[in-house]
Specification:
Neuraminidase, 4-stranded antiparallel beta sheet, mainly beta
Length: 339
């Protein structure tokens, strides 16, 4: 083989490698472009700070039940009632639940319902004296639960590996009323759904952490419809280990939705997906019509010394924001018109 031929081969190989690299870069770029969210930001919204105070006990979750504000500290297993600028401890569930996972709970009048998936247990306790009124162990493993008007909605497992699940409506005496097999099944080892419930006066939503899916129920726990967020990506998260309703993934999961709240006819969803118009440090809220899940628009929460938002809730015309784990700020919120 001549030197000239060797040079030609080297040049040809270099060109082929360059083309492959260009195609790979283009493919990644094109994939990224397909994932860009086209948000419509509503500039007419404004926030006026009313109050702010530092939390002595710390908190990682904010809830509103019957127009009262509650804070949950999962590490201390405390639930406190906020009155003015005072934190009043009303319930400690350390005797019921041993791990530090922020277990979901629902408060109805003077009763609190705690859901403990790793023990398949549901507890009903009296808020005034912390006495356990009901302790029920469910037959099937479950991952999430919420109390509704006539009972409970439980997201329970329907396969041994707990990857495929369904929503089940239980009566107050824990009898199965209906099954809603509306979560897409998959057989590739990927998790179908994990997320959280958001309860309003007349509706209930289950919002996925890892997928763009949102499920809507009425106040009695009957399934109504499902819709997808404007971030319509489906990240296949392969489960490699499951132990007591806790998942271990092959790769670290990316949470698409972080928290949410209901205000009037709007579902406000805290998205973890940034876009070209806002930087990654912005706390972006996407708004959806409760009636049909249609997208309305987006806005960003007021920044606070680059501290990320842990949780938020809407109470009347006020927007309550929990910054990090130690500051609760109340804003007067100018809601979108006609909603």
């Amino acid at each position: 083989m001549t030197i000239f031929m060797k040079k030609n081969i080297i040049i040809t190989v270099s060109i082929v490698i360059s083309i492959i690299l260009i195609l790979l870069v283009w493919s990644k770029s094109n994939k990224h472009e397909n994932n860009i969210i086209n948000r419509k930001y509503l500039n007419s919204l404004n926030f006026q700070q009313l109050t702010s105070f530092n939390l002595k006990k710390g908190a990682n979750k904010l809830d509103v039940f019957d127009n009262e504000i509650f804070l949950q500290n999962s590490e201390k297993k405390d639930i406190s009632l906020i009155e003015g600028k005072s934190e009043n401890l009303i319930f400690n569930y350390g005797a019921l639940i041993k791990n530090n996972f922020p277990e979901s709970y629902t408060i109805i009048v003077d009763s609190i319902f705690m859901f403990y998936p790793s023990k398949r247990a549901v507890f009903k306790s009296n808020l005034k004296n912390s006495n356990v009124l009901v302790e029920k162990k469910l037959e099937l493993p479950f991952t999430r639960g919420v109390a509704v008007d006539n009972g409970f909605v439980i997201k329970e497992c329907i396969t041994a590996d707990c990857i495929n699940q369904q929503f089940t409506l239980y009566s107050k005496d824990f009898k199965v009323q209906k099954n809603f097999d509306v979560i897409s099944h998959r057989n590739d080892g990927g998790l179908t759904q994990d997320g959280f419930f958001v309860k309003g006066k007349n509706e209930l939503f289950f919002i996925s952490y890892l997928l763009p899916d949102i499920f809507c129920f009425d106040s009695e726990g009957n399934f109504k419809y499902k819709f997808t967020t404007i971030d319509n990506r489906d990240d296949n998260l392969e489960v490699v280990k499951l132990r007591k309703a806790a998942y271990t993934f092959k790769k670290n999961p990316f949470y698409h939705q972080l928290t949410a709240s209901i205000g009037g006819n709007i579902l406000y969803v805290h998205s973890n997906i940034s876009d070209q118009k806002k930087d990654s440090n912005s706390d972006i809220i996407d708004m959806y019509q409760i009636s049909d899940g249609s997208y309305i628009g987006s806005f960003t929460l007021p920044p606070r010394n680059n501290i990320k938002v842990f949780d938020y809730k809407i109470l009347g015309n006020n927007f309550l924001v929990l910054y990090a784990d130690n500051e609760l700020v109340k804003y007067k919120f100018n809601k979108p018109q006609n909603f």
